Amino acid sequence: MTTESAPAPRAAQATAVRRAASAIRPPRSGREDAPAPRAAGSVTRRRTPAALMACDTFALGLAVALITPGPWPPVVVLVQAAVQLLLNAYRGLYRPGLSPSALAELPALAGLAVVQWYVVAEAVSAYDPRHAAGWVALGCAAGVQIVVSCGARAVVHRCRLWSAARRPDSALVVGDGPVADRVVAVLQEHTRYGMRPVGRVVGSGADADEAADAPAGEAPLPVLASVQDAGRAVVQNSVRHAVFTVPPETVSDGEELFALFARHGCRVWLITDQGTVARSRTAPRPDHVWGFAAHSLHAGPDRAVAHRVKRALDALLAAVALVAASPVMAACALAVRVCDGPGVIFRQERIGESGRPFVLLKFRTLRPADEHESATRWNVSADGRMSRAGRFLRRTSLDELPQLWNVVRGDMSLVGPRPERPYFVQQFSRMHPGYRTRHRMPVGITGLAQVHGLRGDTSIEDRARFDNRYIETWSLWQDMCVLARTAGSVFRLGGS
């Protein structure tokens, strides 16, 4: 592997710190095309929201102990605490950020506290009038909770910034030009953002040569001119952050780089001086890095708490649905066995979250001629070899029921982009921009594209657009809406 050194020039308002470039070694096999291994899980350093959740719970407990007239039943306090944590998580108050601020969180904390205290006080008063609280008491309780919560959060944020400055995570900067130069300089000088640049990904040999011609004497960074080089750098330097200075779709090999970083569990950022870029991906509280707008491009870590709730609901609902649908599944299995012979369950490799393969389960509706036909034939809905049982299962989507077990196992979610076979993932990723980024979230049994009728022989480009729209605007409520619309489509026999 050939690496060249490019300096991180001094920006107009930020000075690069002189640092030795991290070594990026070639693979032991000496092959240029050797695939990059996965990063070891032990190097991951996640910022869990436990400290912030403890701050909010402590503030609530203190307010209940000081203000409420008489001790409230313990179950009421527990329910109030659970509701508070869920509301705060929904508002993004546990989202890890680069520049956290208790003052910026104050309006959201205050609004949620006032509404929460009013609703809970009304419920407690209706249950037991002895515990009724007046307006003054409620105002004091909300005020105490807000002040204590903000103060405790400020301490947590300060400690995290201090810890990030002492032990910044390795980062790769993707892009070239003045903006990328200034971003590198800012991250080198202001380590409190928790990133230490260890390399520049410029995307082509010509860009690498141009970067290498920059003035000497500054802190050099290795220049990576291919996706393979970037993959080896991620593993060898334990890279935890990837910073795009322009949107990934505008970078040479940007989609492949995005998928690579997601596969290795890196947090992916878009840091730019153009505040209007990627506005649809911006968090409710926009982040920044020394004045540069910072947008998280990876949904998973940004909403870690809500995604854990999604996973828990998936497992619970899928388990209940498996039990409830067991008589129907038994009848489907019997019909397949009678009409099509042995081999009731059809197994097929599909691509899941972050490009990971898994085995998808379905009721067999057609026995393919061989494995090649199974892997590469697009649609079999009009195949004359399909029995009446197979056609009925496909029209009613009952053949998808075994995928509930995939959801229980964690291979899939109830709602998400539909998984596709490896052959078609490669084809569609080359033909349709944005298709590869569908794998930022767990794949699903149904999705936003499917409830808009995009099934079977429909536009792949439209599917990718709807899937990425779902990811960028994801919420638990949206999942509930998609599930409700899917249930309605089943009765209209909308399968394929």
Describe this structure as you would to a colleague.
There is one protein chain. This protein has 496 residues and is α/β, with parallel strands linked by helices. Helices cover 48% and strands 12% of the residues. The chain is built from 18 helices and 12 strands. It has an 8-stranded mixed beta sheet, sandwiched between helices. A two-stranded antiparallel sheet has the order 9-10. A two-stranded parallel sheet has the order 11-12.
What is the tally of helical segments?
A: 18
Give the beta-strand count. Answer: 12
Helix/strand order: EHHHHEHEHEHEHEEEHHHEEHHHEHEHHH
What's the arrangement of strands in the largest beta sheet? 1-4-3-2-5-6-8-7
Computed Rg: 26 Å
Instruction: Report the sheet-strand fraction.
Output: 5-15%
| Amino-to-carboxy terminus distance | 47 Å
Percent of residues in helices comes to 40-55%
Q: How many domains?
A: 3
Low-confidence stretches: 1-46, 210-218, 275-284
Backbone structural class: alpha/beta
- Oligomerization state of this entry? single chain
Mean pLDDT metric:
78
Largest sheet: 8 strands, mixed
Tell me, what's the shape?
Answer: flat
Short description:
With 496 residues, the chain is α/β, with parallel strands linked by helices.
